[in-house]
Known about the structure:
The complex is a heterodimer of chains A (115) and B (109). By secondary structure, chain A is mainly beta. Chain A is 0% helix and 49% strand. In chain A, the strands form 2 sheets. In chain A, strands 2, 4, 5, 6, 9, 10 and 11 form a 7-stranded mixed sheet that branches. A 4-stranded antiparallel sheet of chain A has the order 1-3-8-7, with no helix packed on it. The A-B interface holds A 9, 33, 35, 40-45, 48, 58, 88, 90, 92, 94, 100-109, 111 and B 2, 4, 30-31, 33, 35, 37, 40-43, 45, 48, 50, 86, 88, 90, 96-97, 99-102.
Amino acid sequence: DGGITQSPKYLFRKEGQNVTLSCEQNLNHDAMYWYRQDPGQGLRLIYYSQIVNDFQKGDIAEGYSVSREKKESFPLTVTSAQKNPTAFYLCASRDRGRMTLAEAFFGQGTRLTVV
Amino acid sequence: KNEVEQSPQNLTAQEGEFITINCSYSVGISALHWLQQHPGGGIVSLFMLSSGKKKHGRLIATINIQEKHSSLHITASHPRDSAVYICAVLGGATNKLIFGTGTLLAVQP
C-alpha cells in the first residue's frame, strides 16, 4: 500500500547534537512538507519541496535544514542552532500533477525530545 | 487572525453524545482535511473534502465552500474517540497546507 513513513516515532537526543528525521513516501508525490507542532499550537510549516532538488523555507525554518535528492525522500535535520527543538514533527506529501482534488497524505509524526 | 479557525478548542462529552467540531477558513482552498491526533502524537487522516459530505463509520464530515466552513460530526461518541481533531486546508496564496490549532475532545464514560 502507498503511504508516508516517518521514523522513528520517538527520538531522544542530547542538547547540541544534530539529528535527522526521516520521511519517505512511495506515492510518487512531487511536493513534500515538514511541520512542527508545539503544545497548544497548530502545526507550523518548516520547509517544503515542490520538486526534486528544490526546497523552500516555510514560516519557521531557522535552525533546520532539508535536502530533496530523491523524489521519495525528504529528510529534516534539526541542527544545534535550533533553540527549542523538542516538539512533534509531521511530514506530509501531495501530488501537484493534474489532479484537481490535491489530496495530501500525512506521516504518523516523530516526537523529538532533546535533553 | 489565523487563516483556519476551529471551535471549540476544548470539548468534553459524555459517552453516546453527538459531537460537532467546526472549522472556518478565510482563504480559497482546493481541499480540506480532517485529521485525528492521539495522545501519543500519531496522526491519522480521517477525511479529505472538496465539496459536500463524506461518512466513515460514526464520523461524518461536511463542507460548505460558499460559507468557507466545514464540520466534523461524531455520532454515538465513545471514550476511544478522545483525541485532538485538526482541520487543515490546502490553499491560500502559496497553495500550502494550513492547519487549525485543533480541538481537544475528551469523551467520558
